[in-house]
């Protein structure tokens, strides 16, 4: 059975989504719906909030993210997620590997016949 584009996208998300969340949080603390909107804007990086909250729990468990509750002007309090120093180190390690990895894959794909 040949993989579909959705199968490939799912595999790529599994390996990178947590680092995409860390990259988003490196800009500023955010709450879950904000993260979901940012990563799900084009449906490429993120497809469902059902995967986001367990992922945030794992990131907290690893010590890569801290959370605080903050009042919301439009509803119930929101849980804001903030990148920790350990999370920043994990993101830095990912970036160090990702850029040459991406370049190597791009290099191989450039030579493919159409």
Automatic annotation (TrEMBL):
* Coiled-coil annotated spans: none
Where the record annotates domain Transcription regulator PadR N-terminal, the positions are: 21-92
Read off the Pfam families from this record. PadR (PF03551)
Protein name listed in UniProt: PadR family transcriptional regulator
> Which organism is the protein's source?
Cellulomonas avistercoris
In terms of SUPFAM superfamilies, this protein maps to: Winged helix' DNA-binding domain
InterPro entries attached to this UniProt entry:
Metal_resp_DNA-bind_regulator, Tscrpt_reg_PadR_N, WH-like_DNA-bd_sf, WH_DNA-bd_sf
């Amino acid at each position: 059975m040949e993989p579909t584009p959705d199968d490939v996208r799912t595999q790529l998300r599994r390996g990178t989504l947590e680092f995409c969340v860390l990259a988003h949080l490196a800009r500023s603390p955010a709450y879950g719906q904000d993260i979901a909107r940012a990563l799900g804007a084009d449906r490429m990086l993120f497809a469902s909030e059902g995967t986001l909250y367990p992922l945030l729990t794992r990131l907290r468990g690893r010590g890569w993210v801290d959370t605080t509750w903050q009042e919301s002007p439009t509803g119930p309090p929101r849980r804001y997620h903030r990148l920790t120093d350990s999370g920043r180190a994990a993101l830095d390690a990912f970036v160090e590997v990702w850029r040459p990895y991406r370049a190597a894959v791009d290099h191989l794909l450039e030579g493919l016949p159409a």
